[in-house]
């Protein structure tokens, strides 16, 4: 029986690879890399608090995956824990193969305890840093890790070759069980409890109690360059990141290279990745690497998370490194100004393929809404929700991809609105509580293959107004414009950057502002778009695109694998 299973899997794998290679998705010389993720509960201690938590292979954070551009990663997810789970490959486009996108009840049913699922992660044009994380409830708080995508062997970097790649993952720790924090948050109808610490590579750093001995340390040699693979895996906050005594060069974001930016800080939103080229060119000593929260309001942890850069050599280190100075907690200009500097590598000789003309313009308002809360668990008379165009997303009990592929009716509606139901002064107007509610729906927007799409995200001041890091599965998009206040469809497009806009898949829409993105709908399938603040997506700030098949043989969605999890 075991041999039959192996042979059946081998036949399917050869069939699958044939579809990929013949379809022109992955280069013929791509490598197939295989590994195994076991979902288990493992005990970890931070801040003198020990707790059992969901992990991959017992590690927190999880393993780093290394691959080259165009590779195929075949990965067995074995759920040996007591909770349903899915794993999402954040920023991987999965061309024509949404079956491995890993989004619960959008592209798959969760992997149940005791079950397994073989995921095929198809790398295409991504290069640089991406990451993977759980995409079910709040499990991504402890189930996440880096993906390092190197250039093909015969190609090089558009910047000086680094001596080493260094994944730096910003995370978050609750002393309480995160599942209980999540349940209390949903039941109460308000904001979640604030976490107890931020972390770098799973450690809070020496400014937190019980943490000095485990602070992450990076040893560097004078004169060498290190490519920092920075990932914001924090649940609900944009973070400022700095390295004491050093400037560095931003060279990439979200799996795509950028024009170099010399800076001494970055602002990175949840879900985003940034590649930083650090030259070890300062007097040998110890220096802090640190991250601190940017927040435009609410309660939050103010203590920075720290790691230490230690130069190799003979010298007397200081008793403690100097902490770098950060922008103020609420310095929105520092966050916006950094993001606005990002540019793609486009030149006159080598332009990028940003759509110059648009077939469909979609205007999506992003709001925090209120509805009456009548349950005994409610903290007040109203509960918070979140919406896109006043629709709060309700995930179905059968995944949308299966329903679309198999023609199952009653799972979703194809009526997601292109515009909000009413116009008002989005960023300065006031609506009464009874007018600021949203409607619930499992609604999708269907796009014809190869449609060029512009989405204008418009933040609103409902709920006080806040940033929204929007993430689109299955695609990268060009960020062609952004501004504060209300979007002006006559004035603002004239100022779009259609020459070298950054190519991203995660963009922070400014508080009470707007952001415009463009992409070509050439990846057939079912793709989730949502805010990457975990509280917002839990409240319903998301929607789904269905991109239909094209006419050509290489423009159609590939068939599902035989081991798709059942609902």
Report on this model:
- 10% of the residues lie in helices and 37% in strands.
- With 567 residues, the chain is mainly beta.
- The strands form 7 sheets. It has a 6-stranded mixed sheet, with no helix packed on it. The protein has a 6-stranded mixed sheet with strand order 21-20-25-30-27-28. Strands 11-19-18-13-16 form a 5-stranded mixed sheet.
- It is globular and about 70 Å long.
- The two termini are 26 Å apart.
- The model is unreliable at 1-28 (pLDDT under 50).
- It is found in: Secreted, Extracellular space, Apoplast.
Please summarize the sheet with the most strands: 6 strands, mixed
Helix fraction, binned, reads: under 10%
Mean pLDDT: 93
What is the number of E strands? 32
Shape verdict? globular
N-to-C span? 26 Å
Q: How do the strands and helices of this protein lay out in sequence?
A:
Blueprint: H1 2-22, E1 32-46, E2 49-56, E3 65-68, E4 72-79, E5 87-90, E6 116-122, E7 128-134, E8 144-150, E9 164-173, H2 178-188, E10 197-200, E11 217-220, E12 225-232, E13 238-243, E14 248-253, E15 256-263, E16 266-268, E17 273-279, E18 286-294, E19 305-311, H3 332-340, E20 360-372, E21 382-388, E22 391-393, H4 400-406, E23 439-441, E24 444-447, E25 451-459, E26 468-472, E27 477-484, E28 503-504, E29 506-509, E30 513-521, E31 525-531, H5 534-539, E32 542-547
Notable traits:
567 residues; mainly beta; six-stranded mixed beta sheet; 5 helices
Summarize this, please?
GO terms for molecular function: hydroquinone:oxygen oxidoreductase activity; metal ion binding. The protein has five helices and 32 strands. With 567 residues, it is mainly β.
């Amino acid at each position: 029986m075991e041999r039959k299973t192996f042979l059946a899997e081998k036949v399917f794998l050869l069939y699958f690879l044939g579809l990929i290679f013949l379809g022109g998705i992955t280069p013929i010389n791509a490598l197939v890399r295989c590994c195994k993720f076991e979902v288990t509960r493992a005990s970890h201690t931070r801040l003198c608090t020990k707790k059992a938590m969901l992990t991959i292979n017992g590690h927190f954070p999880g393993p780093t995956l290394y691959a080259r551009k165009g590779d195929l990663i075949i990965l067995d997810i074995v759920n040996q824990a007591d909770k349903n789970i899915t794993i999402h490959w954040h920023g991987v486009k999965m061309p024509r193969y949404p079956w491995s996108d890993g989004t619960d009840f959008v592209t798959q049913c969760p992997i149940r305890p005791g079950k397994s699922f073989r995921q095929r992660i198809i790398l295409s044009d991504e290069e640089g840093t991406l990451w993977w994380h759980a995409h079910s409830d709040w499990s991504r708080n402890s189930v996440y890790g880096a993906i390092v995508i190197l250039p093909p062997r015969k190609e090089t970097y558009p910047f000086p070759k680094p001596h080493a790649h260094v994944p730096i993952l910003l995370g978050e720790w609750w002393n309480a069980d995160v599942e209980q924090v999540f349940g209390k948050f949903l039941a109460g109808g308000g904001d979640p409890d604030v976490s107890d610490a931020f972390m770098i590579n799973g450690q809070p750093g020496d400014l937190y109690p019980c943490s000095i001995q485990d602070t992450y340390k990076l040893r560097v040699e004078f004169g060498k360059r290190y490519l920092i693979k920075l990932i914001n895996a924090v649940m609900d906050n944009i973070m400022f990141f700095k390295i004491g005594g050093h400037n560095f060069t931003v060279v990439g974001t979200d799996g795509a290279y950028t024009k170099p930016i010399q800076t001494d800080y970055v602002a990175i939103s949840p879900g985003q990745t940034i590649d930083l080229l650090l030259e070890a060119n300062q007097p040998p000593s110890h220096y802090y690497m640190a991250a601190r929260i940017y927040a435009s309001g609410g309660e939050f942890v103010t203590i920075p998370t720290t790691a230490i850069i230690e130069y190799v050599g003979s010298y007397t280190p200081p008793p403690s490194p100097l902490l770098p100075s950060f922008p103020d907690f609420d310095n929105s200009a520092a966050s916006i100004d950094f993001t606005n500097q990002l540019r793609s590598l486009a030149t006159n000789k080598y332009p990028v393929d940003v759509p110059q003309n648009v077939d469909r313009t979609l205007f999506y308002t992003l709001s925090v809404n209120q509805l009456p809360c009548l349950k005994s668990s409610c903290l007040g008379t109203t509960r918070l929700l979140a919406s896109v165009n006043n629709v709060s997303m309700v995930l179905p009990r059968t995944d949308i991809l299966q329903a679309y592929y198999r023609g199952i009716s009653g799972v979703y509606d194809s009526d997601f609105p292109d515009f909000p139901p009413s116009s008002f002064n989005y960023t300065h107007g006031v609506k009464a509580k009874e007018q600021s509610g949203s409607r619930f729906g499992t609604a999708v927007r269907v796009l014809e293959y190869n449609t060029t799409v512009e989405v204008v995200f418009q933040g609103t001041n409902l709920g006080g107004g806040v940033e929204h890091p929007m993430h689109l599965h299955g695609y990268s998009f060009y960020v062609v414009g952004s501004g504060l206040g209300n979007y002006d469809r006559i004035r603002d497009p004239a100022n779009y950057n259609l020459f070298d806009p950054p190519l991203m898949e995660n963009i922070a829409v400014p508080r009470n502002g707007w952001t415009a993105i463009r992409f070509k709908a050439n990846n057939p399938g079912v793709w989730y778009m949502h805010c990457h603040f975990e509280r917002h997506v839990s409240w319903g700030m998301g929607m789904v695109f269905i991109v239909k098949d094209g006419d050509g043989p290489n423009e159609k969605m590939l068939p599902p694998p035989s081991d798709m999890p059942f609902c």
